[in-house]
Design goal:
Layout (H helix, E strand, L loop, with lengths): L19 E2 L2 E4 L3 E4 L7 E6 L5 H17 L4 E8 L5 H10 L5 E5 L3 H6 L3 E2 L1 E6 L3 E6 L5 E3 L2 E2 L7 H11 L13 E2 L4
Parallel strand pairs: 4-5, 5-6
Antiparallel strand pairs: 1-9, 2-3, 4-8, 7-12, 8-9, 10-11
């Protein structure tokens, strides 16, 4: 099921440390903007591709993370960058992998470029002030393309969310995402 959304709230940003903030715009037939960060304890934005095997593999993990953190008022958004894949292909992906998060299309790579996303799957955690506090892999299951660990030992997104929610020092700010390159044409 595909959820479209448009939230029209003006963002107030606070810059601290090296956190990136911005007006998170994207083009989906019209210019739109992700807003309302102050209404959530955190927002997780994950870039996916319908024909990237790791994107497929991580849909279950994203669903589990969403289920774990929805009680903590954490919002999850999946982004499909570019126009390379048809809406039917993406709809099939969403249906086949039971994607439950909100979905948006970044046809012109506006959001992709603003966040400097280059890989699918790659996650960004944004705090309630609209600042990016984490960028990278969901966990360390994928070591390289075609190489996966038997046991996941680092849960980057999960651990950053717990730390953020508890007001603790974040264990990670940036990790290297492994997956398929986003072709920005």
């Amino acid at each position: 099921m595909r959820n479209f959304f448009l939230i029209t709230v003006v963002l107030l940003f606070s810059c601290t440390n090296n956190q990136q903030t911005g007006n998170w715009k994207y083009f989906d037939g019209a210019e739109k903007e992700i807003t309302g960060f102050d209404q959530y304890n955190a927002t997780v934005i994950t870039f996916l591709s319908p024909q990237c095997p790791l994107s497929e593999n991580y849909t279950r993990t994203l669903n589990e993370l969403e289920n774990t953190f929805k009680i903590e008022n954490v919002r999850f958004i999946n982004v499909f960058p570019g126009k390379y894949y048809s809406r039917n292909t993406i709809d099939s992906f969403i249906t086949n992998y039971n994607v439950t998060q909100s979905v948006l299309f970044d046809e012109n790579f506006d959001l992709t470029n603003q966040l400097d996303a280059g890989i699918t799957p790659e996650s960004f955690i944004i705090n309630k002030h609209g600042a990016v506090v984490y960028k990278g892999a969901i966990d360390n299951w994928a070591v390289d393309l075609g190489q996966k660990r038997q046991v996941i030992t680092e849960f980057y997104v999960r651990d950053v969310l717990y730390a953020l929610l508890n007001g603790s020092k974040l264990p990670y700010h940036k990790t290297t995402a492994v997956g398929c390159f986003i072709e920005k044409k």
